């Protein structure tokens, strides 16, 4: 049993830890996050990225592949391959967001859906500088898979809002909750990030578990390569380009 003085000192220590954590501003937490993601300062020199992954939706018995390409400053294309269904493609060429899939065909994105795609393509989101947001506020604390984290409510420039939980041990993101805009309407989604690995000097989650409308999708990264990506890879497919007004 702890003596009364020992208990008092332990209580004081816990109080100091709690007040120190609470005293941190969102900007200070983001600065720690940026340092945790890019500990040696290599992000500014990275001109592009190629990432491959596998995904599965256990409840639906579905699995497939993911190919993501990014090019600085703000180009991105993603191809999701599903055996028996085909390819789901999307991208942002620096000015226009688009998507194409076997169910809906080619589309030019608009509104929040397009703005969210543009934000995802911004290469700076790798380290999350504060100027990506119009507002940030502390939103309490959380626990993800037994790891303590502090929550920040981010209002992105697009108007999208996400509440993200940053580990108080590593300062990496453990969970992100947001509303996704889609042709089917707005949907709440929660993404948990795990198994962080050093990929060319950048700490990246090798496993993401996305929960939408009670269904989970697990994405597992298989490779990450940093380097210049060909400009042609970010051009809109012909069927999407045909939708643009002259």
Protein traits:
246 residues; alpha+beta; 13-stranded antiparallel β-sheet; 19% helix; outer membrane lipoprotein receptor (LolB), chain A; single chain; 4 helices
In helices, the fraction of residues equals 10-25%
In the CATH classification, which architecture applies? Clam
Distance between the termini: 80 Å
Instruction: Describe the global form.
Output: globular
**How many extended strands?**
13
Structural class per helix/strand content? alpha+beta
The CATH topology assignment is outer membrane lipoprotein receptor (LolB), chain A
Please report the number of helical segments.
4
Low-confidence stretches: 12-21
Task: Supply the number of structural domains.
Answer: 1
Beta-strand portion reads over 45%
Which sequence of strands runs across the widest sheet?
Answer: 6-5-4-3-2-1-13-12-11-10-9-8-7
Most strands sheet:
13 strands, antiparallel
Radius of gyration: 20 Å
Report on this model:
The chain is 19% helix and 49% strand. About 4% of the residues have low confidence. The protein is globular. The longest helix has 20 residues. Strands 6-5-4-3-2-1-13-12-11-10-9-8-7 form a 13-stranded antiparallel beta sheet, covered by helices on one side. The chain is α+β, with helices and mostly antiparallel strands. The protein has one domain: outer membrane lipoprotein receptor (LolB), chain A (Clam), CATH 2.50.20.10. The chain contains four helices and 13 strands.
